[in-house]
Amino acid sequence: MDKELIEKLKKKLSKDLSDDRYEHTIGVADTAFALALRYGADPEKAYLAGLLHDCAKCLDNDKKTELCKKYGVELTEVERENPFLIHAKLGSVLAKEKYDIDDPEIASAIAYHTTGKAGMTLLEKIIFSADYIEPCRKDIPGLKEIRECIFNDFDRAVYLIYEGTLRHLKNKDQVIDDTSLEAFEYYKNVCEGSESVIEMIRRRSR
Questions:
Q1: 182 falls in which pLDDT band (50, 70, 90)?
Q2: For the whole model, what pTM was predicted?
């Protein structure tokens, strides 16, 4: 990997993000790198996308909205009503405009790292999943089993991530994006009809 570029980005991000968010960011980048090696994606792209996935996260909501207008980022009604969702789309633009990473695959992985989507590319799946399972994440129901599953059955792990996320949002009475609902159904259908790694783990531990 381009170590000079990585260190340059880390230095910028350490100033732009809170300490906790920066620690999370490094965890996502490292996890994305490992998943890329396992599944044959470009490890440098995975690491860069992981580093930049939350680059717009620590901006206040007014600034996010202002930058979306500046760069022509179209927002849905749900996003306008829930500004915390904006950072993914905006981050995909800032990766190029602020951090000089001009790569459409990386931009797309950043754009979909929160909601995901049906039929994600390998890099999109990697960043979506790494954001959920990175080492700083704790106290998420089923997280241990997802971590055990993900290096053997990627689509099943993605489905389980959606299942846990949607359950959490529903319990908290928070908005659920249509894109996430469509993706949940997509990966549920992909996984139907085969024994999951999770089921195998549970069966062996009885």
A1: very high
A2: 0.90
